[in-house]
Design goal:
Radius of gyration: 17 Å
CATH superfamily: DsbB-like
Oligomer: single chain
Helix content: over 70%
Largest sheet: 2 strands, antiparallel
Strand content: under 5%
Distance between the termini: 14 Å
CATH architecture: Up-down Bundle
Order of helices and strands: HHHHHHHEEH
Shape: globular
Number of helices: 8
Length: about 160
């Protein structure tokens, strides 16, 4: 029964629920501990939602076709892109003493008042808020946990194609 849950359409739907469940967990942590997400936190949430949508779409694609392999590639590349954002966020936190702590402007302000390329540059540069470690679990910061989740989802997407 467990094998059936982790294969085929139900496996992809589980990936969808898991991806959006991680976003829900992040929102719960945010509200429970009254944390303000930085631009990189928001970016990681958007990548998790994108992964969730890709898992949902892939659930309705016929298995073992060229299209299903294409969606698996998209899932893996999206997860690796999210891992890249998490690594950048982790790097900012690891080097917070050498970074000039500047709160910067908010995520909404950036996209409303700057061209897209400039706004994306500002988001990925990070701010003093991105360098702060506000919450940990088992010694891991949120970007470290996100990195593990992205890598796990990438491996899971490949696993689903092998079933």
């Amino acid at each position: 029964m467990l094998n059936k849950c982790f294969s085929g359409k139900s496996g992809y739907l589980l990936g969808f629920v898991g991806s959006f469940g991680l976003v829900a967990l992040a929102l719960w942590i945010q509200t429970r501990y009254q944390l303000n997400p930085c631009p990189l936190c928001i970016s990681q949430r958007m990548v998790f939602m994108g992964l969730g949508l890709l898992f949902l779409i892939t659930a309705f694609v016929k298995a073992n076709t060229l299209l299903s392999k294409f969606f698996t590639l998209l899932l893996v590349l999206t997860a690796l892109g999210g891992a890249g954002v998490a690594i950048r966020h982790w790097w900012l936190q690891a080097h917070r003493d050498s970074i000039i702590a500047d709160c910067g402007v908010g995520f909404d302000y950036m996209f409303e008042n700057f061209p897209l390329q400039k706004a994306l540059t500002l988001v990925f540069r990070g701010t003093g808020d991105c360098a702060a470690i506000d919450w940990t679990f088992l010694g891991l910061s949120l970007p470290q946990m996100s990195l593990l989740a992205y890598l796990g989802l990438a491996v899971y997407a490949v696993y689903l194609t092998k079933k």
